[in-house]
Amino acid sequence: MAGNRQTTWGANNLVIEQDYTFKFNEIVAGDPELYIEIQPEDSEEDDVVEIVTWRHAVRVETASWRYVGMDYTTAMSCANSMRNTLTHSKYVWEFGVYVDSGVVKNGWYKAASMPTLESDVAIVKNGIGDMYDVVVQAQMTSDEYDKNPNINITGSRPLAGVLGHVAGWNNSVTPTNGKYFNAASADNISLVSSPTWKREFEIAGVDYTGLVPDEQSPIGYSFPLWYKVRTTYQCQVKFEGMTRAACKNLFNTLNGTSGWWYKYHPYEYKAQSSGGTVTFVWT
Q: Cα(7)–Cα(74) distance, rounded to whole angstroms?
């Protein structure tokens, strides 16, 4: 096992488990507050005193990956490097009086910037040998307060910038530490759940047909039942061991018009006329 241990980390032993994702939420920060702007004496601007409702926006970025098959010393260095890389500066917001370009204001403001590590980085044993993996669950959040709604969703995204400096993340180098597939094919497909189908019946409605009888004879009435049948087909497969590019290509294909899309023709209850007789049928 010792001869196969990695003594560095990068594209050759990087496994991306969850690609970069981004969430954004904006809420009302609390009750309406008094907002004040006091201009300097020599300013031509008017002072501002108003009641405003503050908005609080939170951006959450996540991604996860691991570097596999390293010796313990290399894994320790890798983990420390990941912690340093993922430590970012995050502003602490406070509410109160502050000075902005000579103007005294009262409201939410950035009080300080502090280093923060929100990500989890762990060294885990790889199998029964003397290899180790570094598992990274990366997360970075950023906050912003504003008096106006619709705070810019495309604001600070520190993790997106950091990933460009993570060893191997943006490299186009194909992994060299094992078998891999550049595309989905019969060579790497496995059946998870075999094809099955089931049918469900339900009464869709009741018709009234026939001639209108006289008061003495009910002959001519007909009350046919309509049944609806739904057939559900299921099957599950997976494609294993593909490169990141191959996974993205398969994902885009399956979500396009050549993938899971199919034409569906809904039934309609329509009147049909034949020989002067009108009947209603499902078409």
A: 6
As a whole number of angstroms, the distance between CA 141 and CA 31 comes to 24
- Which residues 6+ apart lie within 8 Å of 65 measured at CB? 14, 15, 16, 17, 18, 136, 138, 166, 169
Written as one letter, the residue type at 90 is K
Q: Which two tokens stand for residue 121?
A: 């980085």
Shared-domain flag, residues 89 and 129: yes
Element of type H or E holding 83: helix 72-86
Q: How confident is the model at residue 2 (pLDDT cuts 50, 70, 90)?
A: very low
- Stated as kind and residue range, the H or E segment containing 77 is helix 72-86
Residues of the domain holding 20: 2-163
CA dihedral 188, 192, 196, 201 (to 10 degrees): -130
The token pair at 97 is 């009086």
The strand pairing partners of 70, in sequence order, are: 6, 132
Residue 181 lies in a domain: no
Residue with token string 């690609």: 19
Task: Read off the pLDDT of residues 25-50 as tens digits, 9 standing for 90 and up.
Answer: 888 888 888 888 888 888 878 888 88
Token digits of residue 54 = 């503050």
